[in-house]
Amino acid sequence: MKKRKVINVEHLSKKFHKETALKDLNFSVHEGEIIGFLGPSGSGKTTTIKILTGQLPQTSGKASVLGKPTEQIDEEIYEQVGIVTDNSGLYERLTVYRNLTVFAKLLDVEKQRVDFLLKKVGLYEDKDKLASKLSKGMKQRLILARAMLHEPKVLFLDEPTSGLDPVNSEAIHDLLLELKKIGTAIFLTTHNMEEAAKLCDRVALLNDGLIVENDSPKALTLKFNKNKQYQVLLKNEIEHTLPHTKETIEKISKWMASDELLTIHSCEPTLEKVFLEVTGRELV
């Protein structure tokens, strides 16, 4: 069954005075899909989110979310959208639990969902703490929980695991994948290429306001695997890096037949190396 398109962008551009932040962006996102917008600081990622969430008007082009032009986004659309950005704040004088129950009431969400999410993001034991007393990482997890409270149809996440330790990042990843299963479309910006490779169905590599590549992480790494090699580890702990040749195939076949082969890996580049090759810039 064909999945519904929930974000659509055509020839989108944004100028700030004489500076062009976005140049002719074209992409779409379907329900149950995670798209990663990847690029260095200043490449246009946050500007794109602000346009898509109605916080900023575009200079030219068209963009729509859940079928409505971004210039006309209203309360009905916001009730179906979750947003986590640098500007997302908390009620500092309320407890962790109250921060969520206030929004649960507004969004007509059952309180059991609050407990479920607090456990998922590792904050259940801290539910009676004031938000002002939380660390930066804990605040980030609470903001994420709030954005996911109503199981939104579209979720915008700007660097959602920044500042989180690996255990909590993993818990957030699991939760995002659960949301994907129920049909939530997720628009994710991140500097973490491993995170993007794990979560995203597609990644758009952004550089100087332009999408320079847009495909699945696997397709991109295979596309830029120009120097095909294999990393081989034998049982005697000797490692070999071998080119993609007829002789290599014969060697590997021989090692396999004699049960000498322990591991074999293809050596396609990482997403970060692909980005560096495409843009000539580090992802910082």
TrEMBL record:
Residues forming coiled coils: none
Localization terms from the record: Cell membrane
Protein origin, superkingdom: Bacteria
Pfam families documented for this protein: ABC_tran
Gene3D superfamilies: P-loop containing nucleotide triphosphate hydrolases
One cellular-component annotation, GO: plasma membrane
Occurrences of domain ABC transporter (ranges): 7-233
InterPro entries with a match to the protein in the record: AAA+_ATPase, ABC_transporter-like_ATP-bd, ABC_transporter-like_CS, ABC_transporter_ATP-binding, P-loop_NTPase
UniProt keyword list: ATP-binding, Cell membrane, Membrane, Nucleotide-binding, Translocase, Transport
Protein name: ABC transporter ATP-binding protein
Species this chain originates from: Jeotgalibacillus proteolyticus
Gene Ontology molecular function: ATP binding; ATP hydrolysis activity
UniProt-listed SMART domains: AAA
PANTHER family: ABC TRANSPORTER ATP-BINDING PROTEIN, ABC TRANSPORTER, ATP-BINDING PROTEIN
CDD domains attached to this UniProt entry: ABC_DR_subfamily_A
